[in-house]
Amino acid sequence: MTTPHERVFAAVAAIPAGCVASYGAIAAQAGLPGRARWVGRVLAAAPAEAALPWHRVLRADGHLAFAPGSAAFEAQRRRLEAEGVELVRGRVPRAHFARRQDLDRWLWAPRDAAETAAAPRADAARKPRRK
DNA sequence: AGAGTGACTGCAG
DNA sequence: ACTGCAGCCACTC
């Protein structure tokens, strides 16, 4: 059967191009709520052959998990920008976060709908923060 | 066995 | 917005 490890891979692979998801969301999607750190560990150990869109996974607040300026940070930022996802004031706008159902649709599971937990408002049509 | 360490998170100050 | 802190849990000394 599917191992937690495989479910994490599947969840990451299910993130649509141009979208992102948090470590916690991936963990929850893989049936491991509360284990965001473990997801980070799995991705760090993931072989390049897996060709996972690891760059679409970031912190819940929109910040990349790597230290700003580090090689890994820049690499991830480049990959995101290549898909049209740009950092605004150092973070990815909530509007880019994939929604629960977007991931479910790719995975299979109607599963529930009960826990529509983090349903981020998908607009973000706000004024340009003065200056 | 026990302490330290994160590709994390949410809450508190 | 930033800093700390408590939970979190696998893994490494």
UniProtKB/TrEMBL annotation:
Q: List residues of the Methylated-DNA-[protein]-cysteine S-methyltransferase DNA binding domain.
A: 5-85
Which CDD domains does UniProt cross-reference here? ATase (cd06445)
| DNA damage in keyword set | yes
Signal peptide positions are none
Give one Pfam hit by family name. DNA_binding_1
Q: Which GO terms describe its molecular function?
A: methyltransferase activity
User: What keywords are assigned to this protein?
Assistant: DNA damage, Methyltransferase, Transferase
DNA damage is among the record's keywords: yes
Q: Which domain of life is it from?
A: Bacteria
**Gene3D superfamilies the record matches:** Winged helix-like DNA-binding domain superfamily/Winged helix DNA-binding domain
What GO terms describe the biological role, i.e. biological process, of this protein? DNA repair; methylation
InterPro entries to which the protein is assigned, alphabetical: ATL_DNA_repair, MethylDNA_cys_MeTrfase_DNA-bd, MethylDNA_cys_MeTrfase_DNAb, WH-like_DNA-bd_sf
Name the chain's protein: Methylated-DNA--protein-cysteine methyltransferase-related protein
Q: Which organism is it from?
A: Aerosticca soli
